[in-house]
Specification:
The chain has 401 residues and is of the alpha/beta class. The protein is built from 16 helices and 7 strands. The chain has a 5-stranded parallel β-sheet with strand order 2-3-4-1-5, sandwiched between helices. Helix 12 (262-284) runs antiparallel to helix 15 (337-356) and helix 15 (337-356) runs antiparallel to helix 16 (361-373). The longest helix has 23 residues, at 262-284. The radius of gyration is 28 Å and the shape is elongated.
C-alpha cells in the first residue's frame, strides 16, 4: 500500500448500506458519477463485490487491493467503487474464516492508506456494526445507512410519499392527493416498486402534467400486499361479484404460496369491517365529516382533540393509517349499523367453522361474503348524511402536489 497520509487529511472513503437496496444503489450511483466528474480522467474502476461463496469474496477483495494500489496511468486522481458487496454481514460467507480475515486485513490497510489521489466508495447490503471493518470506516470515512420501509414503521407512508413526490417533480408531473394516496396503498413499502410505478404512470399520462386517481387505477400494478387488501375493499364496497372474483384469485395463488392461508384472508375481512364500523361511528358522533378529498380527511384527523380519543373507551383512530379509515368513511354508507354488526357475527361464525369443522374452506369464505353482501343497500345519504352538522360531503378541491 502507498504510505499513509497525514493524520489531518480527511479520507474520501464512503460506505453506503442498508435494507433499502434500491436507495443504496441509487445513492451510490449518484456519488460515483459525482466523484468521477470532480476527479476527471478515465482510470476509475467498478468492482462487482457480490459473492456466492468465500472463494468469490476473496477474489473480490484481491481486486479491490489491486485497484487501490494501481495508480492512474496518466496521473491525477482515481475513483474505485466496490459495488453491491454482500459479505460484510453475518451470513455463512461473511462468517467464514478466510473472509473474516480478509475483511479485517482490509480494515487495517484502510487505516494507513494514502488518500491523496484515491477515493473509495463501498456499497453493501448489510454490514455487521460489531466488527472492526465497520468501526474503521465509521472513524476514517463517512457511513450512510438506508433503512428499508416496512409496515412496522408507522411513518412508512409519509416517507414513501416524499420519495414519490421527489421523483414526480423530477419528471415535471403533479399528482392529485387521492391519486397519491391510492398509489402508495397500491404499491406499499417497496421503494424499488414505487419508483418503477411512478415512472410508469408518468409515461402513461404523456404530455399531460397532472396524474389523477383514474390514471393510478388504470396503470399501476398492485403489489402482493395490495392484492391481499383487494378482497376487503370489494367487501367494503359491497360488490359481491368483484369480491367473489378476487376470492377465486386469492385461493388460486394460495396453492403456490404456502405462507398464505384462508385464516389470513378472513382476518383481512374482519379488519376491513372493523374499520368501516369505526368510520361510521365517528361520523355519527360528528367527529368526522364524509368527504371525497383525502387531503381534507387527513386535516380532519389532525384536528381531533387528543382527549376525545382517551378515557376508558379509547378510539384507536389515530393509530390507524389514514387511508384505510378514509376508505371506511366512503364505504360506511353501503351498510346500516345493524348490517355491520351482523357482518361481524357472520365472520366470527366463519372463523369458528374454519378451525373446528371439515367443511371446505373456500366454500365457507364464499358463503360468508355472499351473506354479508346480499340484501338491499341503505338509502343514499342515510349513513353519509350523518357525518356532521351540515349532513353532506365536503366538496374541497383535490390538492395537487
Amino acid at each position: 500500500m502507498p504510505p499513509a497520509a497525514p493524520a489531518s487529511a480527511a479520507a474520501p472513503l464512503v460506505l453506503l448500506f442498508g435494507d433499502d437496496d434500491f436507495a443504496v444503489k441509487q445513492k451510490a450511483k449518484e456519488l460515483f458519477q459525482k466523484w468521477c466528474a470532480e476527479v476527471g480522467g478515465m482510470d476509475h474502476e467498478t468492482i462487482d463485490a457480490g459473492a456466492g461463496n468465500a472463494g468469490e469474496a476473496g477474489k473480490a477483495l484481491a481486486k479491490l487491493r489491486e485497484a487501490l494500489q494501481t495508480l492512474p496511468f496518466f496521473g491525477g486522481g482515481k475513483v474505485v467503487w466496490f459495488k453491491d458487496c454482500n459479505f460484510f454481514g453475518t451470513d455463512r460467507t461473511s462468517d467464514s474464516r478466510d473472509v473474516t480475515e480478509g475483511v479485517a486485513q482490509l480494515a487495517e490497510d484502510l487505516k494507513t492508506f494514502d488518500w491523496s489521489n484515491v477515493r473509495l466508495l463501498i456499497s453493501a447490503s448489510a454490514v455487521d456494526k460489531r466488527r472492526t471493518f465497520y468501526k474503521t470506516l465509521e472513524k476514517r470515512g463517512r457511513v450512510e445507512i438506508f433503512a428499508g420501509l416496512s409496515f412496522e414503521d408507522k411513518d412508512w407512508m409519509a416517507k414513501a410519499e416524499n420519495l414519490a413526490l421527489r421523483q414526480l417533480r423530477g419528471l415535471q408531473k403533479e399528482i392529485v392527493d387521492d391519486a397519491l394516496a391510492a398509489l402508495l396503498e397500491t404499491v406499499g413499502p417497496n421503494t424499488r416498486h414505487l419508483a418503477a410505478e411512478v415512472e410508469k404512470v408518468a409515461l402513461y399520462v404523456g404530455a399531460r402534467g397532472e396524474i389523477t386517481l383514474a390514471d393510478v387505477t388504470a396503470i399501476v400494478t398492485r403489489s402482493k400486499h395490495a392484492r391481499a387488501f383487494a378482497l376487503g375493499e370489494a367487501l367494503g364496497d359491497r360488490k359481491l361479484a368483484v369480491a367473489l372474483h378476487v376470492l377465486d384469485e386469492e385461493l388460486w395463488e394460495m396453492k403456490s404460496d404456502k405462507q398464505r392461508n384462508t385464516i389470513g384472508l378472513l382476518y383481512g375481512l374482519i379488519s376491513k369491517m372493523r374499520t368501516v364500523i369505526l368510520a361510521k361511528e365517528m361520523m355519527a358522533a360528528g367527529v368526522l365529516r364524509p368527504t371525497d378529498n383525502f387531503s381534507s380527511f387527513k386535516a380532519q384527523l389532525e384536528r381531533i382533540p387528543a382527549e376525545l380519543l382517551g378515557g376508558e373507551r379509547k378510539i384507536p383512530a389515530l393509530d390507524l393509517k389514514p387511508y384505510p379509515l378514509f376508505r371506511g368513511t366512503q364505504q360506511a354508507a353501503n351498510y346500516t349499523s345493524a348490517e355491520l354488526v351482523r357482518a361481524m357475527d357472520l365472520l366470527l361464525e366463519c372463523n369458528l367453522k374454519l378451525v373446528s369443522t371439515s367443511v371446505a374452506e373456500d366454500l365457507l369464505l364464499q358463503q360468508v361474503i355472499t351473506r354479508i353482501c346480499s340484501g338491499a343497500r341503505p338509502a343514499a345519504g342515510g349513513a353519509r348524511g350523518a357525518g356532521g352538522p351540515a349532513g353532506g360531503r365536503e366538496a374541497a378541491a383535490p390538492r395537487r402536489w
